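Fold it.
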Amino acid sequence: MIEFVICDDNKDFNIMLKNKISQFMSKYKEIECKFHCYSGYGKEFEKIVQIGTTFKVYFLDIETRSISGLDAARLIREKYDDWNSVIIIVTAHEEFRYEALSNRLYLFDFINKMNNFEKNLEIDLTNILKQYTRSSKSIILEYDYSIHRIELRDIIYIEKEIDSKKCIIVTSYGKRVVQSSLNDLYKQLDENFMKASRSLIVNLKNIRGFDSKTNTINFINGYESSLVSRDNKKELMERVRNSS
């Protein structure tokens, strides 16, 4: 999934930019998208910055009524140590270009609202998609009558649905039910995943802890599972310890 985070104190511009991105992304139906739009860099904006493991793309207005877009970029990079998300500064003030691009915040681009905005936006989105597809392994699955790409890093765990030939894939942004066996899914995953039992596959990178007394795995985003078999308990403890 790609999460687009748009922050501009002009509500009409937020809506326009969201529509332009949605129109561009409609050509890539296998990639799920989510949008967050804000008029300033307040608590709700900061909450999005610190939550989740998804691939994020920020479009930040350099001047708002609260703080500067460069301060927001510094929050993302330095306070929350996120050097993977894409950050694009969007403004009508061309005079801020040098300041923005010389701050060592690894900005992806500086787009002038008043100069070839749509063309530059399309170029950036095209390059961002190239980066997205190269940056993370993923599996392609069919559900809801459509083809979807799920990044491995977004998967928290996969659980076999009771009395069914389906599986529930729990991601950092929701749950997906797919018509597939647990073993078939497991073959598509990498070394960060482990079968904790016949009914459960876990992403070791998204485990916060394992309580061996209650046999409970604590995942990111508040998820829990106790479907750990006795045979796999010791290996799980060791792999959780080594992956931290």
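The chain is about 30% helix and 30% strand.
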